[in-house]
Specification:
Elements lengths: L1 H9 L1 H4 L2 E2 L12 H7 L6 H6 L7 H7 L4 E14 L2 E13 L4 E9 L2 H14 L2 E2 L1 E2 L18 E5 L2 E6 L7 E2 L2 H10 L4 E6 L5 H17 L4 H7 L2 E2 L6 H14 L1
Length: 253
């Protein structure tokens, strides 16, 4: 038990979150997508996710998003009694994101806290998604990508969470777990409404991630992209696409 407590104390440094420094990534690419990224045929995460190829190497994310951050959401200690004594394992939940339209959530289990956190970070990178941002609040109308473009709903276990667009300057009116994930996703203003047992940290985090996943999968009209200022992924990558949509809308008017 004393060893388990010591391991849990050692994990406190990981809970505060760490920033990955931009470094040149060298690895032996084993998948088609990995070879395309290493060969500079794909140079950004937007094209990598739109390619339709499975993301199975965390080094791809390190190469395309070198400024990605990670945040430990939950460290849970699991004990199992056997004939040889008590076996202790740790279940780690980690969120990653570049604070500019990309976010991922992953879990891992192991005997050591440090190795389990590194494994959870890799799993979160493999689950990374591209989200949409915009200005969907009728109180604002600034057309800047600071909040969700429309109401989205996510569910995990007993927890149901609904995110609604908020005007500029409101901030993240959410719980602590949701605030960490939304910050990594690059959302600055948002209203949140929850139902269920939100003290269950893992399900709360999964519900938030599920809502953001619904956001990226929802179909939207082309004229709404320029009207609400919807941006998919990083702002710089799709800036030219938004300008083209704005020109088309002005021509129709």
């Amino acid at each position: 038990m004393a060893i388990a407590r010591q391991r849990q104390r050692n994990s406190e440094s990981f809970k505060k979150g760490r920033t990955s420094q931009p470094v040149s990534v060298e690895w032996d690419a084993k998948t088609k997508l990995g070879r395309m990224v290493k060969g500079k045929k794909i140079t950004n995460m937007h094209d990598a996710l739109k390619s339709g190829l499975p993301l199975r190497e965390p080094e791809i994310v390190d190469s395309l998003l070198p400024e990605i951050d990670d945040e430990v959401i939950d460290v849970n200690m699991v004990q199992r009694m056997t004939d040889s004594g008590r076996r202790v394992k740790f279940v780690i939940t980690v969120a990653v994101g570049n604070k500019d339209g990309y976010v991922g959530l992953g879990q891992a289990k192991g005997k050591e806290v440090g190795s389990s956190i590194r494994k959870a970070i890799d799993n979160a990178k493999l689950n990374i998604i591209e989200i949409r941002r915009g200005c969907g609040s009728w109180e604002c109308g600034c057309r800047q990508p600071h909040t969700v473009p429309y109401a989205i709903k996510g569910k995990s276990g007993s927890i149901v969470i609904i995110f609604k667009p908020a005007p500029h300057g409101i901030g993240l009116a959410t719980g602590d777990v949701a605030k960490k994930i939304l910050t990594l996703a690059g959302i600055k203003d948002c209203w949140a409404f929850t139902k269920g047992k939100t003290k269950t940290t893992v399900n709360y985090a999964k519900a938030v991630f599920n809502a953001l996943k619904q956001n990226s999968e929802m179909r939207i009209m082309k004229n709404e992209i320029a009207k609400v200022g919807i941006v998919s992924g990083s702002i710089g990558i799709v800036k030219e696409e938004i300008k083209e949509e704005e020109i088309k809308v002005k021509e129709k008017e």
